[in-house]
Amino acid sequence: MSAQITKPAVSLDQIFSLTAVRTDRWREMLELGRKWLKHEVSSEQVQEHFTQLSDLEILHAYPGKPLMQALAAQLVAEQRDAFVALCGRISFSILARYYKEESHEWQLYPDASALSDGRAHDEALGGRPYFEVLIVAPSANSRVERNVQLLRSMRRKEDDFVYEPVVVESFQDAFCAIAVNPNIAAVAIFEGFDFSSKQKVPLLDHAIQELSVHIDDDHLALQLADVLANYRPELDIYMLSDRHPEEIASDSRAKCIRRVLYAVEEPMELHLSILEGVRQRYRTPFFDNLKHYAKQPISTFHALPIARGKSVFKSDWIRDMGEFYGHNLFLAESSATTGGLDSLLEPTGNIKEAQERAAKAFGAEHCYFVTNGTSTSNKMVLMAIAKPGDIVIVDRNCHKSHHYGMVLGGLLPYYVEAFPMKAYSMYGAVPLRAIKKALLDLKAEGKLERVRAVDLTNCTFDGHVYNTRRVMEECLAIKPDLVFLWDEAWFGFAHWSPFLRPRTAMGAAANIESWLADPNSIRDYEQQQEQLGEQPSAETLLATRLIPDPRAVRLRVYQTNSTHKSMSAIRQGSMVLVKDVDFYKIEPQFHEAVFTHSTTSPNQQLIASIDVARRQMELEGYGLVSNAIQIAFDIRSQIKRHPLISRFFTVLGADEMIPEQFRESGFVDFLAEGMHWNKAVASIRDDEFFLDPTRITLVCGTAGYDGTQFKNLLASRFDIQLNKTSRNSVLLQSNINNTRSDVAHLIRVLMEISTEIEVHLARSGEEGRLQFEQRVQSLMHDVPDLPNFSEFHPDFRTDVGNHAAVEGNIRDAFFRSWDQENCEYVALNSEECDRRLREGPAMVSAKMVIPYPPGFPILVPGQIIGADTIEFMRKLDVKEVHGYEASKGLQLIRLAAQ
Ligand SMILES: *Cc1c(COP(=O)(O)O)cnc(C)c1O
């Protein structure tokens, strides 16, 4: 009789992006309502879904009680048309975010005139930024109710922002609210609430189960504050106590609380604190001042003709540039560091403050803005933390800036290898075992003292995320003062996902820091030492998850991120984040490194955009990142489920991207059958590698395209841009700017291409089919081996031990080629090249040879060129190869002995 009602199944993607659940539920509600209109479903079915929806809606301010009650009444009275109309209006308002701008959206019967003349910015909301305040308070407490009403009534026209309260009554509801509701920017906790929720939101049960809190004492309010701050550190948390506020304030757990207020005080105090807290995050010291500067009438006598735009707007010939960019760009250009503009090289004013805010926002102790990209950030860090002759353990697949940084600083790179993904011509990440082995080998040779740092890319271009905490802990167990440089060029946004944050450099550093402070840590360490006994073998150490000595550890962590790659900064905007207990010792060095590498003319707009990117993430990063993850899951599942597209295209799951031995939890993939929430949690926490869901490897070889062809096809015919390709795949990334329309466009395009392939195959008969199959076969199976780092030539080794010489003096080799007589060329495809491989003398690269993208070297100066590298280069599919001129051939170092 009635259609099967679809029970909301809990899938992993919904947990990762809880904020998307709500819009889905409203869409389902509307669909169900329309079926109800046609009598295709029963009232009970509608009621059931509506109850679930209502349980979710208590966690949001809009549509609020009156509208939800109206819907409930219409449902009971079977006013089907009215119910569907109101559902439609509300779900549209949620999607289009009208309720943030138009107060009539909140009314049951909006004033017709308000609707028709579209007074977008009405009195009450005033076009000001809108947010919600979570109020956690005991149920049916008249004083709290009164306070909430007072808060609402305090809304004043002169406030910078508008907010609406969301009131919940339990610990569980409070947690669910901040998880599903990205509008929440502040939380006010009144003491005396319950732990358990009265209603059941089945979806959220899972999240709650995994809340690793032990409710072990009576101060529920403090525990709640702690849990909320862990999940979303950017929230301002207020505690309202009617006991002894000063006692709470002095509790060590209260450090995440912005202010403790006496609950019986005037709510005005709370209101003002809430606004002030958001204003603090909204404030962008550098950008605010730049706007102010641009308004001043200023005559310039400094060397920047373009400043104020006079040379542009008065010109007969270049005025179009001015018209294109607008006045403000030129008014905000300056080479002065006066007028409050501060100096990036030695900031003392608003740049300093902007950097301090960014440091806090990203969980670091210090932050440096860099206007020459992460390429420069990496060189700065390497220069600051190590000196010539120091050894740095580094992933050979690191971005070229690391290798050049070693050349510049005279550091000795000790190359460790990522696991290969031969079938897709790409590399994964470096197994921890390889890193530990490098340290233990160096120790055996008596060189551990010279090892300064471990330098890795997190996440990799293709999305491999390290277990940053485990890597650092185990390395620190071998050498307790190692410095870590995590190149998180792609991963800056991850701080704003509670799931990904523990795997960022700063997230892991914070967790290690708490572990170090925990008295049990010494006991854990000593127990392990006892088990390991005297002189454990290297094999034992490699096989053990090592615990460092908490008394010896110096926690020194650096992260670089291309703010422009994952947040709203202008291209080249980058940051260095520092959490280093010994930073005070190397700060002068760090400044020298900044002076060495920075331009003396940093771009004002770039600095401003980094400042603004921080503001955005602190105020809406949680929702934006959650959305980016949702988009990625949408793309993954649409391609997987689509009968036609999936015939020619696949997205690689975690199971394909990460070998099984690195997924100890047994996690398979986000979309795999039977992947429960707790498995994902275990995977994120424990597995050696995890896949960043927003980086999507789409295999196109099975559709007969190599990566470059497919990338060009998407760009030329469909206006879809992407960056990285491999022999048989392309990389799609979802970002904080993507919308569901982008997903729809992509899927439509893939469908069109799939249809074309099908039509072509049908028309071209047996012969065409065979050709297609051969092409696919070649792209998917005739793949070159991925060369590992071979070794440095003995001339560029220092004191080599018995291991292959993966560490060497890259700087000497680099400058050898400055004299042409030291060089020779051998054509890549020549007999000569094959002969040299067979008979010698060894060919030694003079250059850093870097296919771009992805931009990491397959040869470095001083490296002996192996047969596998030659084969790889011969099959390379990218056109741009830095350090290699096809017309001349491979540039080699001519060695004295030859
Ligand atoms: C892009 C990138 C860099 C360089 O960053 P820019 O901001 O482009 O200079 C460094 N490392 C990795 C891993 C990158 O992807």
Automatic annotation (TrEMBL):
Annotated GO MF terms: lyase activity
Alphabetically ordered keywords of this record: Aminotransferase, Lyase, Transferase
Orn/Lys/Arg decarboxylases family 1 pyridoxal-P attachment site domain segment(s): 284-509, 557-733
UniProt keyword ATP-binding, yes or no: no
Pfam families xrefs: OKR_DC_1 (PF01276)
InterPro entries to which the protein is assigned, alphabetical: LL-DAP_aminotransferase, Orn/Lys/Arg_deCO2ase_major_dom, PyrdxlP-dep_Trfase, PyrdxlP-dep_Trfase_major
Domain of life: Bacteria
CDD domains: Orn_deC_like (cd00615)
Listed cofactors: pyridoxal 5'-phosphate
UniProt keyword Transferase, yes or no: yes
Protein name from the UniProt record: Beta-eliminating lyase-related protein
Species assigned in the record: Alcaligenes endophyticus
